[in-house]
């Protein structure tokens, strides 16, 4: 099955997330606010997602930003996936030598 790896973020969104999201989008004119590295100018693509600038728990309106799908992918890619959790550190149990 082709699961989209979308559920990697487990932080629950607040009940009024849709409201915050809509407000942020409106404030940003429904345009991506990121600065493009290649042009040095604001991206201005159609914003399809609202991202947390700081902690994913921080839902203040000023801590949100509107992103186009491309920039949002950049974000989620960075947080989510490439680096799969390292196999557990070899924690040695001093008293528990197997027997
Ligand atoms: Zn963008």
TrEMBL record:
Record flagged with keyword Nuclease: yes
Keywords from the UniProt entry: Endonuclease, Hydrolase, Nuclease
Domain of life: Bacteria
A GO molecular-function descriptor: endonuclease activity
Region (Disordered): 73-99
Name of the featured protein: HNH endonuclease
Organism of derivation: Rothia terrae
Organism ancestry: Bacteria, Bacillati, Actinomycetota, Actinomycetes, Micrococcales
């Amino acid at each position: 099955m082709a699961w989209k790896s979308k559920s990697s973020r487990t932080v629950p969104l607040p009940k009024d997330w849709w409201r915050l999201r809509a407000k942020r989008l409106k404030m940003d004119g429904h345009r991506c606010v990121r600065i493009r590295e290649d042009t040095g100018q604001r991206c201005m693509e159609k914003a399809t997602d609202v991202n947390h600038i700081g902690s994913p728990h921080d839902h203040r309106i000023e801590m949100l930003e509107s992103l186009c799908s491309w920039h949002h992918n950049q974000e989620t890619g960075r947080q989510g996936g490439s680096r799969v959790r390292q196999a557990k550190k070899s924690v040695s149990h001093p008293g528990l030598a197997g027997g």
